[in-house]
């Protein structure tokens, strides 16, 4: 790498990152993007997917909190849930 290009990402590296991002998206997104999509479109879809994962985590956290509030803290079920969260 020449000193003038230090810190810059090559086109090959960008293409590799795009391929890796596409592989991380759910199967339905990958099918939609079977043809080479633009990097900006892929980044937008990746951000939307991450936001949906955050919403899912928040929902699951609320459901778990509700479940834990109905359990006896010393019950075997509560202990199992605590062990899974460690």
From TrEMBL:
It comes from the Eukaryota. The keyword Transcription applies. Signal peptide: none annotated. Pfam families: bHLH_ILI. The keyword Transcription regulation applies. InterPro entries: bHLH_dom, HLH_DNA-bd_sf, PRE. PROSITE patterns: BHLH. Residues 1-53 form the BHLH domain. One of its GO terms (biological process) is regulation of DNA-templated transcription. This is BHLH domain-containing protein. GO terms for molecular function: protein dimerization activity. Keywords: Growth regulation, Transcription, Transcription regulation. Belongs to the bHLH protein family.
């Amino acid at each position: 790498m020449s000193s003038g290009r230090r810190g810059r990402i090559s086109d090959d590296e960008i293409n590799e990152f795009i391929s890796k991002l596409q592989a991380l998206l759910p199967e339905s997104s990958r099918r939609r993007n079977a043809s080479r999509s633009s990097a900006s479109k892929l980044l937008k879809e990746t951000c939307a997917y991450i936001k949906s994962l955050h919403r899912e985590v928040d929902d699951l956290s609320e459901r778990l909190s509700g479940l834990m509030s109905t359990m006896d803290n010393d019950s075997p079920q509560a202990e199992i849930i605590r062990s899974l969260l460690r």
